[in-house]
From TrEMBL:
Native organism: Cyanidioschyzon merolae (strain NIES-3377 / 10D) (Unicellular red alga)
Molecular function (Gene Ontology), one example: DNA binding
Pfam families from the UniProt entry: YbaB_DNA_bd (PF02575)
Keyword annotations of the record: Coiled coil, DNA-binding
Family matches, as InterPro entries: YbaB-like_sf, YbaB/EbfC
Source superkingdom: Eukaryota
Record's protein name: Nucleoid-associated protein
Entry keyword DNA-binding: yes
Keyword DNA-binding: yes
Coiled coil: 67-94
Length: 168
């Protein structure tokens, strides 16, 4: 026996330098039940095994149903986003210069497809052609970007996701 203060502690029960390993406490059923405070470990999403509401959503499988729904929703969103990208790739957006003598066409993904310049504008020389082409291509790009943003906003809204921020 070892005397420690007012208590006598058997040698086997002392926790010290490397004399005796501390015994591990086994998990008991009543401990598990106490931790769950009356909620069945098979309850999920606030429903018990018999389908009645009133649980706390805890338990062993508490949020598994919500996680699976979120995963399914993410997969559907991914497929829809890919379909949207393909649709935008095949969409043509057209814009003209302010005088209407240059017509620029870009895809829904802002890729230039073609630029058409009138013969009258070409006769005016390089500076006039350059300014008109730049204006038409910029206008087409802005229209295409706005179309893409609107399509993406509609897609995210249909899935209940937050809207993408507006570009300045």
């Amino acid at each position: 026996m070892f005397v420690s203060g007012a208590f006598q502690v058997p040698r086997e029960r002392r926790w010290g330098a490397a004399r005796v390993a501390r015994p591990r406490r086994a998990l008991r059923l009543r401990d598990a039940q106490r931790r769950h405070s009356g909620v069945s470990i098979l309850e999920a999403n606030g429903e018990s095994k018999d389908g009645k509401a009133g649980g706390k959503g805890g338990g062993l499988f508490g949020g598994l149903g919500n996680l699976m729904d979120a995963m399914k929703k993410a997969q559907e969103f991914s497929k829809s986003a890919q379909a949207l990208q393909e649709e935008l790739k095949n969409t043509e957006v057209e814009a003209t210069s302010s005088d209407g003598r240059v017509r620029a066409v870009v895809s829904g993904q802002q890729v230039p497809i073609r630029v058409e310049v009138s013969d009258e504008l070409i006769a005016e020389g390089n500076p006039a052609v350059s300014d008109a082409v730049t204006e038409a291509v910029r206008n087409a790009h802005v229209k295409s970007a706005e179309l893409m943003r609107q399509q993406l906003a509609d897609l995210t809204q249909s899935y209940g996701l937050p809207q993408p921020p507006k570009q300045p």
